[in-house]
Every structure is written in structure tokens, then in C-alpha cells.
Amino acid sequence: MRVQSQAGAFLLSAAVIALFWRAHHAALRNAGPIDSYLFWLNVAFLLLVSSIPFPTKVLEDYGDQFLGPGLYGAVIGTAALVLYAMDLHTSRSAGAP
Q: What is the 3-state secondary structure (H, E, C) of the chain?
């Protein structure tokens, strides 16, 4: 059973990272010059995405307690919010409605 939970957590995280990669590409597709605000949002986003293996491990070990899903959800949710802020910033910078 332990191997199944490890494989499931790994596959979940791989899918989440792949979706983040695709959304990141789409958010920056029409970006003009990168200002310091967008640069630091991007750094924060990449930091969060690169940290996903840690909450994945915690999810594997503590999936039946609040800590596992709570930490995993907090990291994924925060990364999604930062990506959303990047998308808003690039949209507004490009003059899109």
C-alpha cells in the first residue's frame, strides 16, 4: 500500500507541475519587457514550484493527517495565486481588457 501512495503522490505532483508549466508559458506568452515586479513574481512562482517535492513527501508520509494535504494545498494554492498575479500583470501591461 505504501508504494501505491508514493506513486500516486508522485504522479499527482508531476501532473500539477506540468499544468503549472503550461499555464506559466501561456501567462508569459504576450509579456513585453520584464519589469522588476514581474521578475520577482516569476522568482516566487519558480521557488514555489521547485519546492513541490517537499510537500509531496509530507503528503506521502502524513496523508491521513491535516499536515500532509494542508501543506500540499498551501504550496499549490500559493503558486496558483502568484501565477494568477503574473497573468494579470502581463495582461494589464499589454493593455488587454
A: CHHHHHHHHHHHHHHHHHHHHHHHHHHHCCCCCCCHHHHHHHHHHHHHHHCCHHHHHHHHHHCCCCHHHHHHHHHHHHHHHHHHHHHHHHHHHHCCC
